[in-house]
Automatic annotation (TrEMBL):
It holds the Pfam family ADH_zinc_N. It comes from Adineta steineri. Residues 7-69 form the Alcohol dehydrogenase-like C-terminal domain. SUPFAM superfamilies: NAD(P)-binding Rossmann-fold domains (SSF51735). This is Alcohol dehydrogenase-like C-terminal domain-containing protein. InterPro entries: ADH-like_C, NAD(P)-bd_dom_sf.
Length: 70
């Protein structure tokens, strides 16, 4: 969903306002696309439910906004 039109629009806006972007994508090809085109450092596999715990470990203080563009 991060690689879809709405997801990419959200990524671009968040980068414009200098927000930290953490994304999920279902395939390695889509994760590579996000790294190469947007320079996103943290991209998790959306098909592996453990990404929730990985994000919790990364952001112990929590998140401010979650956007699900499915």
């Amino acid at each position: 969903a991060a690689t879809g039109a709405a997801g990419q629009m959200c990524i671009q806006y968040c980068q414009y306002i200098d927000a930290r972007v953490i994304a999920t994508a279902g395939t390695e090809e889509k994760r590579r696309f996000l790294r190469e085109h947007y320079g996103i450092e943290h991209i998790f596999n959306s098909r592996d439910a453990s990404f929730v715990n990985q994000i919790r470990e990364l952001l112990r203080e929590g998140v401010d906004i979650i956007i699900n563009s499915l």
